[in-house]
Amino acid sequence: METCQGLRRAALGAAVVLACAAAGAPVSAQEWPSRTVTVVVPLGAGTASDVAARVVFEQVGKQVGQTVVIENRPGAGGTTGANAVAKAAPDGYMALAYGAMAGSAALYSKLPYDPLDDFIPVISLGQQPLAVVVSPARGWKTLGDLVAEGKAKPGTLNYGSAGIGSASHFGAERLRVSAGFEAQQIAFRGVEALTEIIGGRVDFSVQPFQNTLALIRDGKLAALAVSANKRVAALPDVPTTIEAGLPPDSVYPFYTGIYLPAKTPLSIAGKLRDEIAKALMTPAVKERLTGLGIESTPMTVEQFGRFFRDDVAANIALVKAAKIPTQ
Fold it and tell me: Domains, the chain, ranges and CATH?
């Protein structure tokens, strides 16, 4: 930098000033990536965010000519892995793939990071609708049947989730609050809730398609509705919760967001966004994501930032309405 300052004092021209400014600037988007990129999934292998990230970033790695490593760092409801990314060097070489960032912002009052201020929301890998599933043996044919029983027998129904703050937890709470009935949460590890529904020990669950599609198609689970704004190609005969008679706020948007540390240069965030958007539009990736029920319409960094902030506000409102204790 002393050399640059000397050149400035010598007034060798505007071109030299620009060169000096560039010399002191962070790594540019043109230079990124020049080595391995790590994408942290703060949940276990096989979860919805993990699978979506692996599908998309395999293609991103091919596009940029670098290895992209998916690293699972579960713990504390996803906050352990998220904190690692928040504290990482803001150079674009560590990103976060997280499907419960907005939920954790609403649920945890003392996080080691600020979900709104410590990250750049880059892009969503797409929304994966949630399926409202029950055992066929229960005899419920429509979502209205489930809601009617919930209202007729207040507090007697239960639902299975993957734990506090998970999509299956907040999705079920959004459903029951919107419909106006009570139900008790029973938390399980992973997708054990579905086994309990099939066995008749749990009444219903609101689960990502990835966990439910095969069981629905095999007739082991019945899908009463999908938590989405429109019907899903994977289950075209199943109505949305809105079509089933509930208001629009019955829909819980479940998506895997990609985030970078807050001080990452916007040029790098923009390039990462563009590479992901390109990957999402490739036929092979689209086919694999569609098979999981994930529908992608790539947003700009600005659009996803607004979407994420709105979703945080909606989750905060849900926690209050459902009287979910903050952690």
Answer: 37-128+255-322 (3.40.190.150), 130-250 (3.40.190.10)
Q: What are 11's two structure tokens?
A: 């007034």
Ramachandran sector of residue 186 (left: φ over 0; alpha: ψ -120 to 50; beta: rest): beta
Among 160, 106, 114, residue whose Cα is nearest residue 133: 160
For the beta carbon of residue 38, count every other beta carbon within 10 angstroms: 17
* pLDDT at site 180: 97
DSSP single-letter state for residue 312: H
Cβ neighbours of residue 166 closer than 8 Å, sequence gap 6 or more:
77, 100, 103
Which of 68, 70, 125 has its CA nearest to residue 99?
A: 125
Q: What is the pLDDT of residues 91-148, one digit of tens each?
A: 999 999 999 999 999 999 899 999 999 999 999 999 999 999 999 999 999 999 999 9
171-207, pLDDT tens digit by residue?
A: 999 999 999 999 999 999 878 999 999 999 999 999 9
Rounded Cα–Cα distance for residues 68 and 65 (Å):
9
Enumerate the β-bridge partners of residue 94.
38
List of residues 6+ apart from 204 with CB closer than 8 A: 132, 133, 134, 146, 157, 159, 160, 172, 183, 197, 224
Phi, psi of 150, deg, nearest 5? -65, -35
How far is residue 241's CA from residue 223's CA, in Å, rounded to a whole number? Answer: 11
260 forms bridges with which residues in the sheet? 120
The ranges of the chain with pLDDT < 70 are: 1-28
